[in-house]
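Summary for the steering committee. The consortium agreed at its last meeting that each partner would contribute one worked example illustrating the joint modelling workflow. Our contribution is presented below. We chose a case with several input lines so that the handling of multiple components could be demonstrated. No manual editing was applied between input and output; the record is shown as generated.
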Amino acid sequence: MGDSHAYDVLVVGGGATGAGVLRDLARRGLRTLLIERDDFGTGTTGRYHGLLHSGGRYVAKDALAARECIAENRILRRIAPASIEDTGGYFVATPDDPDDYVDGFQAACAAADVDCEEIPVADAFRAEPALNPRIRRVFRLPDGSVEPWQLIESNVADARAHGSDAWTYQRLVGMERDGGRIVSATLRDERSGSVTRITPRFVVSCAGAWSGQIAAMVDVTVTMHPGKGTMLIFNQRMTDTVVNRCHKSSDGDIMVPVHTVAILGTTEQRVEDPDRYEITRDEVAALIREGEKLFPDLGRMRLLRAYAGVRPLYQPPAEVTAAAMKDGRQISRAHTVIDHDAMDGVENFVTIVGGKLTTFRRMAEDTVDLVCAKLGVTEPCTTADAILPNQVPGKTYWLGHRLAEHEAEGGGDADLLCECEFVTRPMLDDFLDRHPGCSIDDVRRGTRIGMGPCQGGFCTFRAAGLVGERARRVGAADVAESADRAILGFLRERFKGTRPIAAGRQLQEQWMISGVYEGGLGVRSLIEHETPEASREVVDVHR
Amino acid sequence: MSTADVVVIGAGLAGLTAAIRVAESGARVHVLAKGHAATHWGPGGIDVAGIPAASTPRDGIRRLAGEPGHPYAFLGDDVAAALEWIRPHLAAGGVEYLGDLDTPLGLVPTSIGGTRRAAILPAGQAAALAPWAVGERLIICGIRGFKDFWPEAIAASLARERIWEGGNRPTSVTAVSVVLPGLAPRHNLNALTIAGRFDDPAWRATAIEAIARAVGSVPGSGGRVALPAVLGIREHAAILAALQKRLPAAPFEMPLVPPSVPGIRLYTALRAAVIRAGGRVQIGEMIERVEHDGRRVTAVVSAAAVRTYTVRTGALVLATGGIAGGGLVAERDGRLLEPLLGLTVEAPPADDWLLVDAFDPAGHPLELAGIRTDAELRPVAADGASLFDNVRVAGSLLAGQRYVRDRCGDGVALTSGWRAARSLTAVPAGHAAEPGSERP
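What follows is the complete predicted structure of the assembly.
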């Protein structure tokens, strides 16, 4: 039996919501532990199109959600500027979009306090020449793109500075209930297998689409309706502005420029199990057909991969309707804090469900207000005012920032390990210094190495070399295994999500890279002899 | 406008081999290619049949020839002849290849710390193949500041018995790094820039001394030294000889991620052989279309920078490569096309192209896709009927082979290129190729 630790609050789930709840609790003086079964941001948060909502997508049918979005949009620009690219957003009326929706759009925005300005169509074409020339009206709204992993890191860093903890690769395997209270929780370390016991005064589930599974551990029912959203990543920014269709939100109607790529979203499809779903070629084809209404040349652009996230859609039991069951899109995206004391007789347990990345801070605030009320804590919420650590006020992210910072330091002479995303050897060294024992996938999320157009074909090998060199320097016993994991994990991760898009130039590039690694470099010799530990990363093939 | 007896599309091993042989027969040959081919990203050896079950390339050919639809079924008997025919052409271009179809397939260490099965290698890599004596050491010598070769990680991996399939291997593996003159402060070095420096005699004299000092710092004697494959292009043979003379252990090159210097040497030697034999090689020609008159191809039209370029031709060798080379194009709707002549492509259904695991030992079914031909390499329709009389298909465009997984791509390319040339030129005089001049 492992160690036992006492905390005021245990937060389950290391997505944006969990990180926000952790930060808010810590700032109100509650000693909190956040646990995540994988790395931070590997669930829905990291499988998202990267949109910082202006609220424009919700004004017509969910004004509450729209109002929350614009309020949080303004707050995030203030407290987390480095995680946000201020791309601005267009809502464009294509010939397929109904006049009545377009005509009422500005008024709907005004009613929800969402800034909206109609601009001359010619101005939009000048700024974004790849847009469909048949677009007839354009509205400009304050959309942006947001880097979820950095946002989580900043929240966690702030919480740690306030005396709280956050552990990755810790899976919640059980909770013990004594009458109307949860008295302990058992965690298993996903890498070492060791078991830890936590005795919290309160438990908050931020497990999103997985909330039902967590609640079931204490015999509480939370019925989630996981909604799969499929997205496509293109190898270029055909637009520097977020572009939305001006219509009732639907499939394939938004393009978000994120770092060096652009992401087309999304679909909406009910799935039974948030860990098991597939993306089909038909789905990809349908998304592209819709996306071509925004960018007519989309079909000829190179797709890097398809991926999907599972939205944590929740239907409060009393409001279930047959219509909503049929179409996940009609369930409100606004969040719900479930008080399991009132609902289920478990006095120290709440679950937060619904919502979206843009409103994660507000979701956390609402949740923590309830927790504090129950624990008798009267400290007010300060998360909307305090700028997050490692952020410079007013300085939002822009695409050239890595190059600019590098040039400012003298430039020129750094080892550029990843040419696509401009990741240098010192940057990778620094990340590895700060994250001992991390996986190569963690490195990818932390530095964006391998996320650009070559999708790891060239930098994989270099990252593995550096990992091996460092392991050797500190006298680690598993130098070679570290390098194997780096190479194989990376190549496998990049392969996932390419099956439904195998075509054209992307398939050509993928074929060349596999020829290089399997042919001249003999990667199969590492696989045939890899240890079970090294093959761990391929287990969840659907993610 | 220009005229040729034979146009070859594609400048990889298959296309250039065909071109050399056509040119040597006295026919006018033009090679047109949109860019460089798999030579530039492959390891630069001639992999004929590196399958695990095979003891030698000849044994591998026999096994692969027995698989349904494999091109070795009709090419297998000619691999030896093609190999012996190309060897002096390559040697004349400065790259000597060692090993033949009866050389035992051995494990060659790679620059990711793995091994691959090989038998026929350029002289610069051949030292890796000899059996390891008891007590023999392997030194991995890296270059400081070069990001495509990581000696510590390679050495750690190769020190593991299982990487050598539990068999013959070096007794010790040690990593060293060397600072080469004028390179250390210049980061972002790639293999080509370093190879260019090695071609300079004064620079390489200093570099070789530095390598000798680094290798000499490792205790012990004899054994072998693995260096990144950057040892010059034009002057490679002289550099290799100087290193062999100066180092206390036998040097060999480890191929790297692209651009592949050994592959560029192979390409350079092949191209030189085409030109020596009187052929032309034009790279940077995007083929716009191939014109034909019924069953005969008559002209190839390409788009260079500012004009279209038409070559009237009596025959065509299609050596445009597989999926990586662009000889086959996968459409998003799941069709697989041969874009120049619209040839019938033999392919599995799109949902079966790729397996779920990137490295499934079964290999992705898509690798088998390609153009089916008759024994003379003429493309055929699904019913087996020949489509064009004066077209031959060569290289990885041929259906039925797993050129990467089974390490047979070079053998198929070499032999099919060689055979395509013979098929087009070894007919009665006057019909070798329909003279283009008849169609001014």
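Chain A has three domains: 4-44+149-225+316-375, 86-145+227-311, 401-538. Confidence is low (pLDDT under 50) at residues 319-330, 532-543 of chain A.
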